[in-house]
């Protein structure tokens, strides 16, 4: 409670959400939710969190663009496949993917690494990252605030409810994404195996009568 009501909370939020961009095991989401429950200024929570998310996105992007990027990505087969899969869709929908991936479990780091590996220009990456940062900060802090308001006499219960809703909504978004991706894959497979119609072959008739 001392930290949540201290001015040090806001730089702490910025630092944690920045590191979360390259170290996803840091529980920044739980801290932002708790800040939404206890912090005296919701606006400062959102601003500090959004700033940290924006910085963390660019840390992952810059790491992928560096000479160490391919080596670090290649150390995990799962991350390599995810980055490669994300990179195939960045030419046409980079902005939308950057924003939506922020709400998927593990999507933020994967998409930022993919953008760096694919060489998405900062003129496209940074505006989308800013939108995603503000949206996620407002969404997460808002869940904490609503949970704390609904359970004013038991704020820890409100925090637990907010965290649970965050996981549930993230799972629903991921389920919808996978279903759409599976439907698109089945449609492509059906198109690929569909037999082509043969053109009718014109028959040659022998001329009537002699030459």
Q: Which class best fits the helix and strand makeup?
A: mainly alpha
What is the count of β-strands?
A: 0
User: Largest sheet, if any?
Assistant: none
Strand proportion: under 5%
CA radius of gyration: 25 Å
Low-confidence stretches: none
Mean pLDDT equals 78
Helix proportion of residues, in percent? over 70%
Oligomer: single chain
Q: What would you call the shape?
A: elongated
How many angstroms does the end-to-end distance come to? 109 Å
Order of helices and strands: HHHHHHHHH
Q: Helix segment count? A: 9
Which descriptors apply to this entry?
211 residues, 73% helix, 0% strand
What would you note in describing this structure?
With 211 residues, the chain is mainly α. Helices cover 73% and strands 0% of the residues. The chain contains 9 helices and no strands. The chain has helices spanning 9-19, 28-38, 42-65, 69-74, 77-87, 90-101, 107-118, 122-150, 155-193. α2 crosses α8 (122-150), α3 crosses α7 (107-118) and α6 (90-101) packs antiparallel against α7 (107-118). The protein is elongated. The N and C termini lie far apart (109 Å).
Task: Give a quick summary of the entry.
By secondary structure, the chain is an all-alpha fold. It contains nine helices and no strands. It has helices at 9-19, 28-38, 42-65, 69-74, 77-87, 90-101, 107-118, 122-150, 155-193.
Q: How would you summarize the topology of this molecule?
A:
Blueprint: H1 9-19, H2 28-38, H3 42-65, H4 69-74, H5 77-87, H6 90-101, H7 107-118, H8 122-150, H9 155-193
